[in-house]
Design the sequence.
């Protein structure tokens, strides 16, 4: 659709992810691509991650299974500082989630492709830092962009290196996770539970095993969404900048994939 538009000044993506745009091999050359930084989207994503991290920390998944079996299983509540939450991806969304989680007392650590400086929590970077990072986490939160390097990142090898009983929240892209390897890790007890909001195929097919797996929570890609009321100012400002020949905000690096 975009290929014949020879006078394009800007491609403004209406969400945080840009992989669907970059997948177009016929994109017009030299046209800036901007992702959307929307305060409303960020707030809703932060709420979702905080909600499910608290639920996993308080073992609500185990309580639900006990209720189904009519078992009175007392699960002693533990303070959040005993729970290490690892955030994979320290962009706008990851940093907002880290702040909220730290605010209720969780120990937060982060991982990103390149080193982040000046943050108030421990961070790791690059392939060399990934193993030490994931071994510490009670809850792993996936907030990475989908790139050639991150596709299939959470596979059998990755999951062998997490601590027994760890949990996973994926709010990034379904293709970050190898579905069969995730199910094997849950069935084998390496992972205790997974909360999945994104999938390789959406809507998730009715016959997919995720729907009925007792250790998986499925939500229909509604962890967050662009809010026109909060996004419009950023979009119109980028249009103004592009039409004036100035550099738009939040530009994507096509080489990096985000």
Sequence:
């Amino acid at each position: 659709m975009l290929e014949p538009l020879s006078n394009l000044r800007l491609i403004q993506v209406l969400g945080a992810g840009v992989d669907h745009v970059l997948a177009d091999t016929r994109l017009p050359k030299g046209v800036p691509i901007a992702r959307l930084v929307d305060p409303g989207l960020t707030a809703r994503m932060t709420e979702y991650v905080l909600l499910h991290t608290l639920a996993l920390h308080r073992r609500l998944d185990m309580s639900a299974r006990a209720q189904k079996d009519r078992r009175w299983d007392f699960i002693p509540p533990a303070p959040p500082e005993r729970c290490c939450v690892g955030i994979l991806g320290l962009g706008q969304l990851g940093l907002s989630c880290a702040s909220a989680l730290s605010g209720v007392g969780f120990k937060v650590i982060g991982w990103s492709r390149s080193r982040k400086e000046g943050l108030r929590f421990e961070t790791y970077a690059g392939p060399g830092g990934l193993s030490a990072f994931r071994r510490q986490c009670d809850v792993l939160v996936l907030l990475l962009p989908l790139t050639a390097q991150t596709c299939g990142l959470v596979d059998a090898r990755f999951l062998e290196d997490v601590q027994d009983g760890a949990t996973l929240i994926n709010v990034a892209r379904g293709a970050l996770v190898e579905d069969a390897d995730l199910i094997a890790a849950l069935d084998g007890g390496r992972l205790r539970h997974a909360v999945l909001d994104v999938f390789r195929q959406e809507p998730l097919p009715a016959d997919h095993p995720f729907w009925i797996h007792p250790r998986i929570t499925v939500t229909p890609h509604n962890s967050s969404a662009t809010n026109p009321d909060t996004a419009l100012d950023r979009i119109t400002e980028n249009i103004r900048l592009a039409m004036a020949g100035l550099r738009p905000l939040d530009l994507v690096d096509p080489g990096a994939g985000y």
About this structure: Residues 153 and 159 are 10 Å apart (CA to CA).
